[in-house]
Design a protein that fits this description.
This protein is α/β, with parallel strands linked by helices. It has one domain: Aldolase class I (TIM Barrel, Alpha-Beta Barrel). The chain contains ten helices and twelve strands. Helix 1 packs across helix 2, helix 2 runs parallel beside helix 3 and helix 6 crosses helix 7. The relative contact order is 0.16. Bound molecules: zinc ion (ZN). The site of zinc ion has 5 residues, from loops.
Length: 318
C-alpha cells in the first residue's frame, strides 16, 4: 500500500525480431526465451502480449538481403512493413512501434551510409526519412530512430509531415551509449559492425551532461518520447531527464541486461524472477514512464510455461 513505485503491464514495450523468409520461429542463442519470428508468426506473439496487457511492441527487421546502402530499410515489402500490416489487421488497437535504423539492412552493419570508413551523417538522414515514411505508411503507430545521427529527428519529422503523416509520433533514442551492452542484440539482429565500432555516433558512457544535451536537442527537433539506453547502466541519466524534461521518458532494458539475468538464473546463482521484479521496479523508480524489455511476456504472464504472475495486467485489454 505504501510502495511509491509500481510496475504494471501497461508500462512495458516488448521488442520483437522479425525475419523475412523464416519457416519456423528461431531461438536466439544468446538471449534464452527470445525468438526471431516471421512477419506472419510475430502476430501470435504480439497477440499473447496484448492478452497479458502489454500495450506495445517494438519491431526490428532482418531482411533477406543486405547491401552497402541499406536499401532494405525502406522496402514496403520488407520484414517490418509486412509485419506491421499483419499486426494492424489482427490487433488494430495494439501500439506498433517501428525501429528506424540502417544497421540491420547494411552489409557492413553500421547505422548509416559509409563514406570511406566513416558513416556519412547527412546521406544517412535521407535513408532514415524514407524508412520512417515507409513504416508509417505501412501502419506503424510510432517510429523510433535509433541511429544517433545528428539532426535525424527534425529530418524525420519533416519527411513525415510532408507525406501527410503528421499524426505519427517520434520516439527517439535520444541518449544512447556505445559499449558492450548490445552484444546479444547484434547476434539476434545480425547487425554487428563488420569493422570498427559505433563510437563516432553513439555516446561515451562517461558523459552525463552530453546525454542531457542530446535529449534536449531531440525534444527541440520534435521528439514526442525520448529513450535512454541502456537502462540499468544509466539510472542516473533517467532520473535527471525525468526531473528536467516533461516528455515521456522511455528506458531500454537492453539485451545484455536481459542475458546476464537469464544466464545467472540458469546457473542457479540468482533468483531470476525476483531479480526481474527488482530490475523493472528500479528503472521505473529512476523515472522511466515506459520500459522496453525482453522480460515483458515472461514477467507478466504465462509465456514459456510460467504461471501467470500477480501483476494484474491481464484485465487491461481483454
Ligand atoms: Zn543501428
Amino acid at each position: 500500500m505504501v510502495r511509491e513505485t509500481k510496475v504494471t503491464a501497461s508500462d512495458l514495450i516488448a521488442p520483437l525480431f522479425v525475419q523475412q523468409g523464416l519457416a519456423a520461429n528461431t531461438p536466439i542463442a544468446l538471449m534464452p526465451g527470445q525468438f526471431r519470428y516471421s512477419p506472419e508468426t510475430v502476430v501470435e506473439e504480439a497477440s499473447a502480449l496484448w492478452k497479458l496487457g502489454v500495450p506495445a511492441v517494438l519491431l526490428f527487421g532482418i531482411p533477406l538481403r543486405k547491401d552497402p546502402l541499406g536499401a532494405g530499410a525502406y522496402d514496403l515489402a520488407g520484414p517490418v512493413p509486412t509485419a506491421i500490416r499483419n499486426l494492424k489487421s489482427t490487433l488494430p488497437e495494439m501500439c506498433v512501434i517501428a525501429d528506424v535504423c540502417a544497421c540491420e539492412y547494411t552489409d557492413h552493419g553500421h547505422c548509416g551510409i559509409l563514406e570511406g570508413e566513416f558513416v556519412h551523417n547527412d546521406q544517412t538522414l535521407e535513408l532514415l526519412r524514407q524508412a520512417a515514411v515507409c513504416y508509417a505508411r505501412a501502419g506503424a503507430d510510432i517510429v523510433a530512430p535509433s541511429d544517433m545521427m545528428d539532426g535525424r529527428v527534425a529530418a524525420i519529422r519533416e519527411a513525415l509531415d510532408a507525406a501527410g503523416l503528421s499524426a505519427t509520433p517520434i520516439m527517439s533514442y535520444a541518449a544512447k551509449f556505445a559499449g558492450a551492452f548490445y552484444g546479444p542484440f547484434r547476434d539476434a539482429a545480425g547487425s554487428a559492425p563488420g569493422f570498427g565500432d559505433r563510437r563516432a555516433y553513439q555516446m561515451d558512457i562517461g558523459n552525463r551532461r552530453e546525454a542531457l544535451r542530446e535529449i534536449e536537442l531531440d525534444i527541440e527537433e520534435g521528439a514526442d518520447i525520448v529513450i535512454v539506453k541502456p537502462a540499468l547502466f544509466c539510472l542516473d541519466i533517467i532520473r535527471e531527464a525525468r526531473d528536467r524534461f516533461d516528455v515521456p521518458i522511455c528506458a531500454y532494458n537492453v539485451s545484455s541486461e536481459y542475458s546476464m539475468i537469464k544466464a545467472a538464473g540458469q546457473l542457479g546463482w540468482v533468483d531470476e524472477e525476483r531479480l526481474v521484479d527488482d530490475t523493472l521496479l528500479s528503472i521505473k523508480r529512476a523515472g522511466a514512464d515506459l520500459i522496453v524489455t525482453y522480460h515483458a511476456r515472461e514477467w507478466i504472464g504465462a509465456g514459456s510455461g510460467i504461471e501467470p504472475r500477480r501483476r494484474g495486467g491481464a484485465e487491461n485489454n481483454t
